[in-house]
Specification:
The chain is of the alpha+beta class. The protein folds into three domains: 90 residues, Ribosomal Protein L25, Chain P (Beta Barrel); 84 residues, Beta Complex (RNA Polymerase Alpha Subunit, Chain A, domain 2), CATH 2.170.120.20; 73 residues. Helix content is 36%, strand content 32%. It has four helices and 13 strands. The strands form three sheets. A six-stranded mixed β-barrel has the order 1-3-2-6-5-4. A four-stranded mixed β-sheet has the order 10-7-9-12, with no helix packed on it. A three-stranded antiparallel β-sheet has the order 8-13-11, with no helix packed on it. The N and C termini lie far apart (128 Å). The mean pLDDT is 85.
């Protein structure tokens, strides 16, 4: 793999990061075991080119003055609004020590089951975890789709080929890719019917909501009317009771 070279300059820690960014540069730091920490700045476009080419799992030659440091992009911060690079962490790499990192899967070739039988490619993974010496680090692992000859074919982790010294950490029987057979006309029709029924049910539920609300309002009115009628009858009974008592009292008084 072609070595990615990125030039950086030492920056004054007193200069605010926004000033660095206004100069079309990205503030950065370099650190790691056994190395001196450095505050750096890298050209925005040059870093973008290097990052898009190598990503976070490619060792770069980070040139600072006359010295070249082997480094990995450890962390990248983006502007939350523009997605522009706002800061980057470089970590020092000892080429003779093991590293564990994630690398992308690159699907190559063509499946006979897709090309001739009209199947649909189903990918279960997009990356794998590898362990190797830093000097043996690869940027990606290829997946040969030509192994998918029919609908019963499956590509597992064990089918992936990596260079000597590189170990894939995932279990060997984990599925990477398969091909799904095309659906029959009956299956498509059944799915469309089920979807149409679900849509109709949802529409019916929406239409039923105002009716239910109306019925609820009418019931409240009826309940309220019944309550008022009950209160009115109660008032009349109280008045009649009071009138009866008053009448009895008058009669008693006249007798006396």
């Amino acid at each position: 793999m072609e070595t990615i070279v990125l030039e950086a300059t030492v920056r004054d820690g007193k200069v605010k990061p926004n000033v660095i960014r206004s100069q079309k540069k990205v503030p950065a730091v370099y650190y790691g075991e056994g190395v001196k920490n450095m505050s750096l700045a890298v050209d925005y476009n040059e870093f973008r080119r290097a990052y898009l080419s190598g990503g976070e799992n490619t060792i770069m030659d980070l040139k600072v003055g006359d010295t070249t440091h082997k480094a990995l992009v450890y962390q990248v911060q983006l502007n939350p609004v523009t997605d522009a690079f706002s800061h980057v962490d470089f970590i020092a790499v000892d080429m003779n020590k093991e590293v564990t990192t994630h690398v992308a899967l690159k699907f190559v070739g063509e499946s006979e089951a897709v090309r001739s039988e009209g199947g649909m490619l189903i990918t279960q993974l997009t990356e794998v975890t590898i362990t190797c010496l830093a000097k043996d680090l690869v940027h990606e692992v290829e997946v040969d789709l030509s192994l998918l000859k029919d609908f019963n074919s499956v590509i597992h982790i064990e089918h992936l080929k990596v260079p000597a010294g590189v170990k894939i950490e995932e279990a060997s029987d984990i599925t990477v890719a398969t091909v799904q057979a095309p659906k029959s006309d009956e299956e498509i029709a059944a799915e469309e019917a089920a979807e149409a029924a679900a849509t109709q049910q949802a529409m019916d539920a929406v239409k039923a909501e105002p009716v239910a609300a109306e019925e609820g309002a009418d019931k409240d009115k009826v309940d309220a009317g019944a309550g008022e009628e009950k209160d009115e009858k109660s008032d009349k009974a109280d008045k009649a009771d009071k009138a009866g008592k008053a009448d009895k009292a008058d009669k008693k008084e006249k007798k006396e």
